[in-house]
Design brief:
- Helices cover 41% and strands 22% of the residues.
- By secondary structure, the chain is of the alpha/beta class.
- The strands form 3 sheets. Strands 2-1-3-4-5 form a 5-stranded parallel sheet, sandwiched between helices.
- The protein is elongated, with a radius of gyration of 19 Å.
Amino acid sequence: MKVLIIDDEEKITDVLTSYFERNGDQTYVSNTGEQAIEIMDSIPLDMIILDLMLPDIDGEEICRYAKLNYQIPVIMLTAKISIEDKVNGFNSGADDYVVKPFHPKEILIRAERLLPLKTQQDVIRFGDLTILKELNTVKRQEEMIQLTQHEATILCLLAENPKKVYSRDDLLYKMVGGVQENNPRVVDQHIKNLRKKLNNDYIQTVFGIGYKMNEMADGHEI
């Protein structure tokens, strides 16, 4: 699995990196929240090990970002031991919460137990795209393309029903889980980002109505 270890203590990142790599996993290390977000946005990760106390961005904010955009399992590390701190950690989206000090083998075991949450994938195929729903990732030929949660939601809905035209309101409703939102035009920006990432005209605009998949793309004709 691809593991991002986020901690500003070099001793902790070194020992965790050693344990995960000896287990055959691929590791990425970040000492700041800003760098962590950059890695999340560029690499399809399977797991995040996250220290609650970072020098620039609060760990709970990083956790919320990971869950909102990518649904990556998060193990939160912290020296805070109160029940209120644990509740705040879980409320921010953490899947597990480990109090320092800890043994690195414990973190490895906890990560492997969470991994099935990530690997139970539903796959959608459209043309030369393979969409891994639970990973928010698209494979096109040999290229892996990471999507945000909203981008993945839109693409999956369109690709599962390629003959159907969806209005902005339809797509927005699906994105936010039925919560009312005042600006359906936000969908246009997500479509724009998808087109840029997919680097092809897979999504068709039906003027005056909304969006659908370009059925010609399903036969590799575009």
